[in-house]
Amino acid sequence: MASIKSTRSLTLDIPPSCIEFVPGHPELFVVGTYYLERKDEEGHDTTESPTGQPQQRTGSLLLFKLEGDEVTLQHTLPTPFAIFDIHFAPASTSSSAPLLGAATSTGSLALYEISASTLSITPLSVLQIFPTTSLITFFSWHPSIPSLAALALSSGSIYLCDTATIAATASNNTDSTPVLEDGDTTPSAAAYLHAHALEAWFVAFTPDGRGLLSGGDDSTLVSLAPLPQASSAQELLAAIADAPPAVQWQDRKTHQAGVTAILPLEPAPSSSDDGEERQQQQKPLLVLTGSYDDHIRLLALPPTPTSFPRRPKLLAELDLGGGVWRLKDITTATAAGTTTTTTTTTTTTNSSESGGRGYEYTILASCMHAGARVLRLKGSSQDEGGEEDLGWSFEVLAAFEEHKSMNYGSDVQPGEGGRKVVSTSFYDRLLAMWRW
User: Fold this and answer.
1) Domain range for residue 90?
2) Residue 337 forms part of a structural domain
3) pLDDT digits (tens, 9 = 90+) for 207-250
4) Is the predicted pLDDT of residue 274 greater than 90, yes or no?
5) Could you tell me if residue 353 is inside a domain?
6) Which of 82, 202, 319, 349 has its CA 20 to 30 A from that of 376?
7) Which long-range contacts (CB under 8 A, 24 or more apart) does 2-5 make?
8) How many domains are contained in the chain?
9) 172 CB contacts (<8 Å, ≥6 apart)?
């Protein structure tokens, strides 16, 4: 394992909570910040103040430019709420003005455009989905249905919402009345799915968009029954209103603390076109999880509600020395005898000189007080069993440990072979660029 030194570092004015490079513009990245009037060294504080009033939180969005080893701040946009999480919409890769969503400390999902020509962040709308006392801790865009997002709340609730419908409704209102109370459903705009016993920290769609996984402070990983097939967010929400998806299974035994990250891996390519869709449906879904218990884990999830066993199967795990807050697939996989690399989608390797099969992923992990890690996940076998039958293992390739407080956000610059990383830490307000 290589210990990495930064090539450039900056101290920000406000603690950074999340980071993401701009799709289609690899020289640009956005950082979300989170300022709380009272700091809690255990992580993002979701509690009330000693007076019983919600803690006051503010934040900002920062647009940076990365050229060579130089990192320069281009635009600062202050926000009246703290930013928990940011993600670009999937269609942003082909857009001249990528759409950015931000989960906030006031129950809203804020939307912005990034201009690469003017190097600026433009506010579009603030979707007041929940009361201002609610905290949206994480959200995820649907991989193929535009404007559909899944939301995780500090109350434990998990929701689906149609951001386009909510934005249209908001444009016709002069006040900031929330669309719904926590636990309610508005069929045309948002649907309540289920709730964790404690804070919900993460929600993720499966690669095909039909499955939904969530994790919470209750140490539970939850899978919902497959979502209805639909071509639009409104169509899907209407179908859910008629027949809400049930909880397919709940796993309370695998994780020894809160589930803070969920990363479904892209399925391996089929070796045959005959019955490929049916074969993929029968394969267990491979999922990486992160937890406050300091472990990264690889799980094989049951492919259908009737599969046995019903619980996820643990394939590999590794103690990373700190709570695993975020996981990002930055795969630079190479098949035997090839040198092809990619950093945009999950890639698998197959074939080996001995006739077996091999799969390899490269993962960037934000490990809170332990800093950032780059890991290799590798599976290999000499037989023709399923992916869950491979011998899987984790290997730490690089560790970046200059952060002196919680590393909540890290991302890799696209187009650099997965070798140039920008990571952040919360209380010391450090932003660092490094290579591995």
Assistant:
1) 5-271+279-329+402-435
2) no
3) 999 999 999 999 999 999 999 999 999 999 999 999 999 999 99
4) no
5) no
6) 202
7) 2/397, 2/398, 2/399, 2/436, 3/398, 3/399, 3/401, 4/398, 4/399, 4/400, 4/434, 4/435, 4/436, 5/402, 5/434
8) 1
9) none
